[in-house]
Every structure is written in C-alpha cells, then in structure tokens.
Amino acid sequence: MRGLEVRELECFLVLSEELHFGRTGERLYISQSRVSQLLRKLEGRIGTRLVERTSRRVRLTEFGEEFAASLRPAYDALAATVEQARTRARDGRSRMRIGFQGTIYAQVTRAITAFHDHYPDRRIDLVEIPLSDPFGAMRSGDVDAAVVMLPVDEPDLTLGMAFSEQHQYLAMSVHHPFARHTRLTAEDLARTSLIPLAEPAPGYWRRVYYPDTTPCGRPIPQEDGVHTLQEGLTRIAAGRGTMLLCGATAEYNLRPDITFAPVAGLPTSALGLIWPTDRETPHLRAFATAISDYWR
C-alpha cells in the first residue's frame, strides 16, 4: 500500500506484546497519545479495528491477532535486512578482505601490520582462496584483492605490484625415484607425473606451473587435478604424483614424507597483488606500497 509507515507497524507489534499503551510508548520512546495516533492511522489504512481498548484492559481483536501473527515474520525479515545492510556498509568502510593461495608469507603479514599502524581505522582480513581458482573470489566480491601466483592476463583485473620472484621446485614423496637428486632439469619432468590444478584456473596460468610438455616438447604425464595446496601435498605424500612449487612455499611446507629439489629450465615463480580494476581504492594502493617496502 502506498504511503505505508513502518513506524505504524512497529507500534502495533509492540502494542500487541505489551497490551498497554503506556508501556508501548516507553519502549518506543514516544508519548501514549502518539501510540494512539499511530494505531488509529494504521486501522484507517486497513479499514477495521485492530485493538479493543476499555478503561480496564487492552486486547487485540480477532482480526488484530491474525494481522499481528502474519505481520511479525515480515517485519522481522525487513529489520534483519536493514541491519545486514548496515553491517555490510560499516564493514565495507573499515575492512579490506585480501585473498591468498595456500601460504601467506611473513613479508605479507609484516606489511599488514605496517598498514594497520598507518591506517588504524582500517582492518585487513585474510581469506584463503582455492589454488585452482585465483580470480573467482574477486569477481564474486568475496575478497577485495588477492595475492596470487603470476602471470595474470585478465582484462578486468589490475596488477598492483609483483614480488617474490623465485625458482621452482619439484615436490615429491621421499620414496620417489628423484628423491635423492639435489637438482633436476625441466626435461626430467617427462619421467614423472605432475598433479595439475583443476579447472577453472586459466590455461595460460596452469601452463606455467603445470606444463604438459618439457621445453624440448616431451610430454609430461598428468595426474587428476586438485583444488588446494593441501590436497596436492596429500597426494604427493601418498606417492600419487609430484607438484611444482616456488621455493618459499616448499620451505613453508617442509614435512618428513615429502622432499623438494630445484628444477632448472623453468620460468621463475612470482606473486602479485591484484584487484578488480573497477573497485580500486587508495587503501588498496597503499597496501601494495606496504608490501613493496617489505620486498625490497
């Protein structure tokens, strides 16, 4: 109904609980006469009495009881929607959600601390995103930016900065035939099987870290794909394939059932802080600068 006042509905619902005009006014911080005025307006809109009032008591009419029962869920849902919107708006002003894949490096956490010191009214929340889907969380709005492995060639995303360029290592079971090797070449990958990332990681991105041929064109056997780093490490420990990881990730994931060896002849690995181009903010740029300061 056009012109409907939420205050009238709120007043009626409180009155249906209190059954007392004075207590209703106290709860709503309005006068008793204002309660009566709001009730009369609502009854006029609906076209029937909702409340019967005598000198001794207040009670709902049969129609009023039915109306209150049907109105309460709708009013509660409306109030919850407004509160959720307020929370999102408040958090959107004070928080940034930064995604990361697999491992968050100490330099990034130090950059976060430095950012908080410089912008005490802002907060950075870290959110792990799937290794196999580096860009999906940004496009869905689940994170504002993400630290992902490069390259990034997406027209709707901005690379704020690149950092942590490192050699790639082969992660393998301690029982793998290469386990005693201290160094491997890209051609050696033809004699093992790689665990690739599952879709939807873009092809150009997967080819850097999960190539299907060596530089000389020899095919590299492929296992079934995984979505997360921990899935891959579990497969490796069980002897069900190998993975290419950067040196820092290998160092952060040392365990007795997996070993690592550097692989010569592969592109270096690097990280980048990226965000949707149309949602860039000065604070995202400031965070990129903070990371840069810790990676000089």
UniProtKB/TrEMBL annotation:
InterPro entries: LysR_HTH_N (IPR000847), LysR_subst-bd (IPR005119), WH-like_DNA-bd_sf (IPR036388), WH_DNA-bd_sf (IPR036390). Keywords: DNA-binding, Transcription, Transcription regulation. GO terms for cellular component: protein-DNA complex. Gene3D superfamilies: Periplasmic binding protein-like II (3.40.190.10), Winged helix-like DNA-binding domain superfamily/Winged helix DNA-binding domain (1.10.10.10). One of its GO terms (molecular function) is DNA binding. Residues 4-61 form the HTH lysR-type domain. The keyword Transcription regulation applies. Signal peptide: none annotated. PROSITE patterns: HTH_LYSR. The keyword Cell inner membrane does not apply. Belongs to the LysR transcriptional regulatory family. This is LysR family transcriptional regulator.
